[in-house]
Amino acid sequence: HHHLLIDTDELPDFSVPLGASEKLVHFGKGQTETQPKLSPGKHTLQLVFADYIHLPHDPPVVSEKITITVK
C-alpha cells in the first residue's frame, strides 16, 4: 500500500517499517484519496509503496517529489 510523505526533507529509513505521523500518512485500508490539512504556503508530497507491515519494497518504489502551493 501507499504512504504519503508530507514536507519531508529526506526519505525515511527503508530498513524498518514506516511509522505513521502527521508527515507520513498510511493508506493501508484501500483509501484512494485524502484531504490533508495543510497551512497556506508551499508543501512537498511524495509516495512510497510498502508491504503489509509498512516495510518499503526492495528496491524501493518511490514517486517523484512534487511541490504544491496551498492558498
Strand content: 35-45%
Care to count the β-strands? 5
Number of helices: 0
* Uncertain ranges: none
Helix-strand pattern? EEEEE
Net shape: globular
Average of pLDDT: 93
The chain-level structural class is mainly beta
Short précis:
By secondary structure, the protein is mostly beta strands. It has strands at 2-6, 24-26, 41-50, 56-62, 66-70.
Structural notes for this entry:
The protein is an all-beta fold and 71 residues long. Helix content is 0%, strand content 42%. The chain has no helices and five strands. Strands 1, 2, 3, 4 and 5 form a five-stranded antiparallel sheet that branches. A hairpin with a 5-residue loop joins strand 3 and strand 4. The termini are far apart. The mean pLDDT is 93.
Element layout with pairings:
Elements: E1 2-6, E2 24-26, E3 41-50, E4 56-62, E5 66-70
Antiparallel strand pairs: 1-2, 1-3, 3-4, 3-5
Supply database-style keywords:
0% helix; five-stranded antiparallel sheet; mainly beta; globular; 5 strands; 71 residues
